[in-house]
Design a protein that fits this description.
By secondary structure, this protein is an alpha/beta fold. Helices cover about 45% and strands about 15% of the residues. Bound molecules: 3-hydroxybutanoyl-coenzyme A (3HC). The site of 3-hydroxybutanoyl-coenzyme A (3HC) has 17 residues, from helix 2, helix 7 and helix 9. It comes from Stygiolobus caldivivus.
């Protein structure tokens, strides 16, 4: 299959990597040269890690060879699937869809990796809405087993079923989502967890480490809640919370605004709720 991924941030590059590992040819687009380079570096690092552990069927260089980086939003007539993975901003995504629609062939499936925005609402940017669906990956895409496949009001049954097959084809477990609501299934739960955790520390009764220690060692989360916010990105989570709050959903964490204004964007900036300059934070039991 020929796939194009739009946006080479953490999610876009990870999605491109997953498709390439599974034998697909991938075009990875980003408007910015630095972002594209960073995305390719992330993929190289990750492929080397997986190779060291014997988890790849091919050499990392062979897999890298399946990924073509570009800064030109080219003619995508022969592309089977385009996945948009730009920041969580309705207007930005809508603009990408409008441009994409002019470049793709009539049979190209257009998917969005939106974390939260209803597919039906996003599809208002498109003229041909029946080939549009959500394919929502989790960070880091190469290690996380699930992908939500979301049907908007206009997504055809055929495209929805094809989405499920595509996810199986990249060896992930599809979660079919027919109720097209803010946050779908996983993030609808997760945003409430984030909001509760933020309220516990904003009230001053608990520290970030206490909440994370509980999440990790009592609730059995693989990471602390604030650790996860850092890991997925303070900016990413802030942009999501702004978009969903506009639509009346309660994902509220004023601490995100504070960190963002100080440039503490999480793991990628080596500072967020935690200091990551010496690696992953130690969360005590
Ligand atoms: N590629 C390859 N290897 C990777 C990697 C990647 N992208 N990321 C981490 N690794 C490697 C690490 O380097 C480490 O290798 P080592 O054994 O050689 O040191 C190994 O994986 C294990 O990593 P860690 O020791 O750091 O820690 P964990 O055992 O905790 O595993 C994790 C890491 C899989 C990320 C795990 O902590 C986890 O599942 N965390 C929760 C992630 C999660 O919930 N994601 C969803 C977030 S919500 C979301 O994405 C939605 C969006 O819409 C916002």
């Amino acid at each position: 299959m020929k796939v194009a991924v739009i946006g080479s941030g953490i999610m876009g590059s990870g999605i491109a990597e997953v498709f390439a590992i599974n034998g697909n040819s991938v075009i990875l687009y980003d408007k910015y040269e630095e972002a594209l380079k960073k995305g390719l570096d992330n993929i190289k690092w990750s492929l080397e890690k997986l190779h060291e552990k014997g988890k790849l069927n091919e050499e990392p260089s062979t897999i890298m060879g399946k990924i073509t980086p570009t800064r030109q939003l080219g003619e995508f007539y022969d592309i089977d699937l385009v996945i948009e993975a730009v920041p969580e901003d309705f207007n930005l995504k809508a603009q990408v869809f409008r441009e994409l629609e002019k470049k793709v062939g009539t049979n190209t499936i257009i998917a969005t990796n939106t974390s939260s925005l209803p597919i039906t609402e996003l599809s208002t940017a498109l003229e041909k809405k029946d080939r549009f669906l959500g394919l929502h990956f989790f960070n880091p895409p190469v290690l996380m087993g699930l992908v939500e496949v979301i049907k908007g009001n206009y997504t055809s049954d055929q495209v929805f079923e094809r989405g499920i097959e595509i996810v199986k084809g990249i060896k992930k477990e599809p979660i079919p989502v027919r109720k097209d609501v803010i946050g779908f299934v996983v993030n609808r739960i997760l945003f409430r967890v984030f909001t509760s955790a933020c309220r516990l520390v904003s009230g001053g009764k608990y520290t970030i480490r206490e909440v994370d220690s509980t999440a990790k060692y009592t609730l059995g989360f693989p990471m602390g809640i604030f650790e996860l916010l850092d890991y997925t990105g303070i900016d990413t989570n802030l942009f999501i919370s702004r978009e969903v709050k506009k639509r009346g959903f309660d994902f509220d964490c004023p601490l995100l605004e504070e960190l963002y204004s100080r440039g503490q964007l999480g793991t990628k900036a080596k500072r967020g709720f935690y200091d990551w300059s010496n690696g992953r934070p130690r969360i005590e039991k």
